[in-house]
Amino acid sequence: MKTVTGNGNEWIREEFHQIDFGDKRLKERFFETAGLLSSKASGSIYPSCHGSWSQAKGAYRFFSNERVSESALFRTHCVQTQKRLEGHSLVFSLQDTSELNFDSHKKTEGLGSISKAYHKHKMGLMLHASLMVTQEGLPLGLSSLKCWSRVSREEPPQEKQRRLYQSTMKEKESIKWIETLYETAALIPKDTCLITLGDREVDIFELFRVASSLKTFFIIRNRKDRKFIDEKGKKTTVQTALSKTPILKTIALTLPKNQQRVARTAYVDIRSISGWLPIRNNLVYGPTNKDASRHIHEKVHVSAISVKEQPPPEGVAPVEWVLLTNLTATDAFEAEEKVNWYRLRWKIEEFFKTLKSGCCVEQCRLNTATKLTKMITLKSIIAFKLMHMTKMAALCPEATCTDVLSKIEWQTLYCRIQTTSRLPEHPPQCFRQ
């Protein structure tokens, strides 16, 4: 297993040693710029350059250089991600999308709408990411990163729904889930099992079909009550079939804090049933192909797992999940295992929080979306590095801090924790100290 090693600028040089801009001076400029942004992840360009205008000017020129592309930056990171995946029998791809708010950057060109309401237009960029983690929750890298500006449309919800119904899969924004699955599967070593985890937005027919065709697995939260064919061939719905299934087990589910709830423990009942999801041809829509689009072409075998809290605390929304997976979940042990695996999905929310709050990506001030995308790509990789370092400290508390921190970094951290201004000469023996 390969982990992120090196401290200070060393990890930058190790992570990106294969990058090629066609100019050695530009490559050195990248190492210098990335090192500065990494050493002060919460700062934008000028603060990260410690007040040096010459260094800041060099960084601005780097992101303005046409020979620098976000694809080159990310492609090099993917090579290292693939190496870190080696030796793991099981890895998880956590997919999610987030909005990056640059509405206060009035002069930035190329931004798009990030508002969900059709009559409002907050400006920014959309970011879709796939974070690879182990069963223990250790981040191994990003397998896909897509950043784009969404076109502002003046249409009410009914017209939007009609437009999407008449669009092919490739014309929809939802294609991001499928493309990311293909890109991630291409990085997976031969003897490694890939499981995609996703929230209700990922509950789309095409992903189920593609995942099965690639011989990969998924655990997706169900968005709506789908048609279902049980093992006996009876046609019903997922919710109806689960309601007639006995409780397998009651478990304690630890829920982290988020914008909608406080951290708490929920006691949930688990049910499970196996059967088939009939998949219609959703590649062609529209009135002229209405009959064809409704025709059932194939079906995917799934296990549906119900996770339901009874009763919830007073005034608190209950936990009610239905998970769909093409993994087996025929007994209490297997069903609980899949529920615990699905909880790893919260790591992608932690990634976006690290990117926005820790790396302050929304404070970056570059005058075009193209330049911003390059910065976002680099900041995303730095956010992964911070998550990897944090989890390594939890998993390996006896490891030395010099494995991941430079001398000035561990000295600063030591002074902050110990509330002293005297710099230590020798590093603590382990992370725990």
Automatic annotation (TrEMBL):
Q: Where is the Transposase Tn5-like N-terminal domain?
A: 9-68
Q: Which GO terms describe its molecular function?
A: DNA binding; transposase activity
**Gene3D superfamilies with a match to the protein in the record:** Tn5 transposase, domain 1 (1.10.246.40), Transferase Inhibitor Protein From Tn5, Chain (1.10.740.10), Transposase Inhibitor Protein From Tn5, Chain A, domain 1 (3.90.350.10)
Span of domain Transposase IS4-like: 196-382
Enumerate the InterPro entries for this protein. RNaseH-like_sf (IPR012337), TN5-like_N_sf (IPR038215), Tn5_transposase (IPR054836), Tn5p-like (IPR047768), Transposase_11 (IPR002559), Transposase_Tn5-like_C (IPR014737), Transposase_Tn5-like_N (IPR014735)
| Top-level lineage group | Bacteria
In the record, biological process GO terms are: DNA transposition
Q: What is this protein called?
A: Transposase
Per the UniProt record, the source organism is Candidatus Fukatsuia symbiotica
